[in-house]
């Protein structure tokens, strides 16, 4: 068991499921940038970790200079690592890495509606189906018609939770653009397009609950978590 979410990120060095997930997420981010209209591309990342998915993709994408992003993450050491990566990529004027609470609407003020919303490693930590549905419905505050959503959800005990995510996203006015399972077969990664009109961002509204102790990491993905 990792002692915190910073240490949890070490699993990227050893766990095929996380490495494969990152590869698909990076591909979906790249695909989303490819189809973005000319001009500024706004991106938000919810519970961003150290931002390796977005930052890794931008390091090698022709639209990188058009991206204005806000990454929101509670663990200060992950934010520090992300900020260093932003600095060294020369993207400090465009990418904000906020050390804050991604569950509250106020953290997104001024950064939404986004063209691309990244919610990776989150959907397995929002409680039951009602908690999941709450988060997915509240994505209307971060989105506008045509926004692209990139998300992940793993299986636990053979239960394909990504099926539930896909069903609820359909009910929340998202259409599926692409869905893949990792080669390990137990982690779903989706790319959805928002078809709704979006809603004005409220002040200080809780958008979802990140369950568990925010300072503690979860088990290795391959064993339990279904991130
Ligand atoms: C499973 S990790 C996923 C990190 C990253 N998105 C990825 O896919 O690599 C979950 C992250 O959520 C962060 N987190 C937990 N509660 C949070 C909150 N209320 N606000 C912002 N980040 C939070 C944790 O610190 C952790 O880095």
UniProtKB/TrEMBL annotation:
Signal peptide (from-to): none
UniProt keywords, alphabetically: Methyltransferase, Transferase
One MF annotation (Gene Ontology) recorded for this entry = methyltransferase activity
Which InterPro entries does this entry report, sorted A to Z? MeTrfase_dom_put, SAM-dependent_MTases_sf
Q: Does the keyword Cell membrane apply?
A: no
Gene Ontology BP annotations: methylation
Transferase keyword on record: yes
Question: Start and end of every Methyltransferase domain?
Answer: 41-152
Which Gene3D superfamilies does the protein's record reference?
Vaccinia Virus protein VP39
Q: What is this protein called?
A: Class I SAM-dependent methyltransferase family protein
According to its UniProt entry, this protein's organism is Amazonocrinis nigriterrae CENA67
């Amino acid at each position: 068991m990792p002692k915190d979410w910073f240490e949890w990120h070490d699993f990227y060095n050893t766990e095929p499921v996380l490495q494969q997930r990152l590869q698909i997420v990076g591909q979906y981010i790249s695909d989303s940038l490819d189809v973005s209209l000319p001009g500024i591309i706004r991106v938000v990342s919810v519970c961003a970790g150290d931002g390796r998915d977005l930052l890794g993709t931008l390091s090698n994408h022709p639209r990188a200079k058009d991206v204005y992003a806000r990454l929101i993450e509670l663990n200060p050491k992950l934010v520090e690592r992300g900020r260093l990566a932003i600095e060294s990529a020369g993207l400090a004027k465009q990418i904000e890495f906020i050390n804050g609470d991604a569950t509250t609407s106020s953290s997104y003020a001024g950064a939404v509606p986004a063209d691309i919303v990244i919610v990776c490693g989150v959907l397995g930590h929002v409680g039951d189906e009602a908690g999941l549905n709450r988060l997915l419905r509240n994505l209307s505050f971060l989105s506008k018609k045509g926004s692209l959503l990139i998300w992940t959800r793993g299986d636990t005990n053979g239960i394909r939770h990504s099926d539930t995510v896909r069903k609820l996203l359909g009910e929340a006015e998202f259409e599926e653009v692409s869905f893949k399972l990792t080669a390990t077969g137990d982690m779903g990664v989706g790319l959805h397009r928002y078809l709704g009109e979006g809603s004005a961002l409220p002040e200080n509204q809780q958008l979802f609950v990140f369950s568990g102790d925010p300072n503690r990491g979860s088990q290795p993905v391959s064993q339990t978590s279904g991130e």
